[in-house]
Write a structure and sequence with these properties.
Number of helices: 10
Number of domains: 2
Number of strands: 0
Mean pLDDT: 85
Largest sheet: none
Helix content: over 70%
Radius of gyration: 23 Å
Low-confidence stretches: 1-7, 14-19
Distance between the termini: 84 Å
Oligomer: single chain
Structural class: mainly alpha
């Protein structure tokens, strides 16, 4: 009896492992190819600035998914994941900020720059819906994911500006000083200097 039980257990495991392998090598690879094809098509619209067509949330064209459709149909593919990022940008551009936040949060970014941009866009969307606290939190996350010359000073700058307009001058100075000290080649260096002069006089 025990031998039969072990035998059927081994057979069961072989079936499970074989099924998983089949799904991974056949089903998922086929899905990935289809998803990538749709992704390339959607990116073409995005590169032309045709945001609504790139997202295609209203099924503008039959047999064309768009970023929205790719996310729904291929949620576990790599193309489906990156489509969440693109869809988040599209929703933001179309003024649907809550949907932009929602879908951008679901995007899984392994690349540190993309991850930083993810939280930066979420921060921008929160600004649009007047949630300054969440915007600030996301800007700080975006700046600190990985220190670099592009995204770090940019999101410190946004955090500094937000604090400035909230009249939290000490906090604003803290972020501006970080940029001044560590990122001398920042694109908005002159603006940083002007704000710091104003804050110094204010304090």
């Amino acid at each position: 009896m025990k031998k039969n039980t072990i035998f059927f257990y081994i057979i069961f495991l072989i079936i499970i492992v074989g099924t998983c392998f089949f799904l991974k090598t056949i089903f998922f690879s086929t899905s990935e190819k289809k998803a990538i094809k749709e992704l390339n098509y959607a990116q073409q619209y995005l590169s032309k600035g045709e945001i609504d067509k790139a997202l295609n949330r209203k099924n503008i064209k039959i047999n064309y998914l768009g970023f929205s459709g790719i996310v729904s149909k291929f949620p576990f593919s790599k193309a489906g994941n990156i489509s969440k990022f693109y869809a988040g940008i599209c929703y933001y551009k179309l003024g649907d900020y809550k949907e932009s936040i929602k879908i951008m949060k679901s995007f899984s970014a392994k690349d540190e720059i993309l991850s930083s941009m993810k939280y930066g866009i979420i921060g921008d969307a929160f600004i649009q819906i007047k949630n300054k606290k969440e915007a600030l939190k996301n800007y700080i996350i975006a700046a600190n994911i990985r220190e670099n010359e592009i995204t770090t000073p940019l999101y410190y700058y946004k955090a500094a500006l937000l604090n400035f307009y909230m009249k939290k001058y000490k906090d604003s100075k803290f972020f501006f000083k970080k940029i001044e000290r560590k990122y001398p080649f920042f694109l908005y260096k002159k603006s940083v200097e002007k704000y710091l002069m104003f804050i110094e006089n204010k304090l």
